[in-house]
User: Fold this.
Amino acid sequence: MNVYERIRKTLDHEEPDRVPTFTQSAEPEFISKYIKNYGRDSGSFFLTRQLKIARHVGFDSMWMHIGAAINNPFRIKPSIPDEYKPKDKSISYSKEGHLWKKSSDGRIWYYGGLLKTPELIETWAEFIRESPKLPNFYYRTVKWYWDYGIKKRLLPIPTLGAPFYFSWAAIGLDRLAYIMRKYPNSLHKLMDAWTTATVEDQILLFEKGVDMVFICDDHAQKERPMISLKQFEEFVYPYYKRLADNANKYDAKLILHTDGNIEQEIPLIIKAGIHAIEPLEYEAGMRVGTVKQKYGDTIAIIGNVPASDALSVGTVEDTIRITKECIHDGAPGGGYILGTGADLLGSIQPQNLKAMIETARKYGSYPIS
Assistant:
């Protein structure tokens, strides 16, 4: 069974040959640390440095960020009235309407939202709606990467779209509740524009045979969701349903990534038709056994091995124990992909990550005992 078949069978709630494994992105500090400990993948694998490391570790799948939507380099951002332009010259704004600030070490960090008024929000919604697609060869290239990755035993799953994250990050958490209350129609226009752009991009992949995509749409904190269930049902659920309905038309799988504790939202996520949730953040109180017991027949689960806990500050024995627990609680009957509960953080110990993969290979063969 190849990596594609293993993951697709799992997302269909069937038992493959063994429990698949998945990870998000790899931070540069982890890559350097891993190479120092174990060397690099010296094969002819053409993909990125991150994907090479993921294959060398032994993962079955990993994110592949492909951008798309309004990331067309020829699309000029809307002009901004002077009173809303950042006074600090080190702060710039992106095509998503997010403010970014460069730190002294050259890294770019999210700094806040630019769209503080309904007028700016609606201007940006129109900009997104009118943005041209990238050339068709761009999406053909993604499919080529997909096919080649399967041959090389690592499925690169595209990340594409983030309707709510793009929207709240453009408005800013300091203004989001106010906009929801006073100008809900403006927020709906922005959500609709992002969802439409995401659907159009996903169709271009689905038509080429790429049948799994992520939306990386963070909307939860460690203890609870960022917004109330009522707000989630009004401002997020309809757009998730549109995305899931579109995926179903192409027999494709839509996977939702959001960090934090989303336990309250899972019923609405399932109702919308999302096929899988990731990363089920352990440090936020999420547990694969609980979610599997309540919802395992209706949504697939990815992740739950604690990245900043066991993998970073625990021992090899800690990692083995918690990996076995995840397999025991999540794997029977299919519908579970073992994964890190976050990126491959710079703090993760390479020997712990190796232990996680080796434990999955040793104890994750079906039938699970």
